[in-house]
Amino acid sequence: MKCTAILLILVGIPLSNCLISLSDVGDIISFAHEVVIDVLQAWKLVKPFVEGEGPEHIDLPILKDKEKKLLSKISQVSRRMEQVDKLVQSATSASMLNLKQDIPTQIRLELRIDTLLELMSMMNFADNKFREYTDVGEDDNRTIASGLERHTLESFATYVVSHSPNSVQGILDRLHSMIYPDRDQGHAFLHTGILQLIRQVLQEGENSLCHVQQSPHQIIYNLYNSLQMTQLKGYAMMQFSWMLLRVYGKGNFTLESELMRERYLERMAEQAISLKEALSNADAAYWRCDPKHHVEGETYAQLTRLLQGYIQNEVDLNSQQTCRENCGYYQVTKQHGCYENNFCA
Asked: What does the UniProt keyword field contain (predicted)?
């Protein structure tokens, strides 16, 4: 097996598989901060409601205009996240599938990979549905959302921010507990995050996962990026859902929004610590599997004529500078000089 270097393309930035540093995490974190700022600015669209001027006191055309602007902002942010998410997920999906197939059943259950993938799938489903309900074209023309009843958006927004374990808010809580478990929990498993557990399994398996075609360092890093994008979707959905509920006169939700923003940023910092711990001991070597059948020119190259002969003047092969022996005499020798500075090998 041979260690080779591969390139990861994340948001258009090439990263060497064997040389990934923690500073590269800044790419996804910077994008997350941009989305947080965009969401924060979107609150200005519903700012009049903060001062007690509820939707029941606003003319219907004005209310519709605010809803249209808010949905346009939601669609804009969602499209940005979708573009980045495609890049992140493409680097993660294949390795996670191979990893799941290689880890024995009892270890897979301990790692809760099935639960992790299910939570990510639930979040993606909710995000797809949310984008479908709030989709606004580039020219601000409503598409599917044009014929939706207000109750449809209102009930979905209520689901997003509800306290159910299967709501978007509940999924975010569960994902965070898997990445950065509460150290005060009594269950022994919860003292180790999913990133650290994966590193341990990959370390114990040594080179048995060579067909994953990524180093343990790369697998952990890609999974972290994928989890960050999943949580970013949830955060944006929750913020926009509170805005919609405010537009529909269901409450103010200013405090809820501020608390969620603080909690999200705090969780990002905690999960970065978990990533740092996992990457600090993760192997950065990528081992390629040996092929089942070797084919010359495809899987290997044969080197020939490694030993070659050349002509050397005898006078330079002995310290006396004589020319009276034959080739058989010089079984082991070396070049002693270059007689009269003539041609020398």
From this structure: Signal
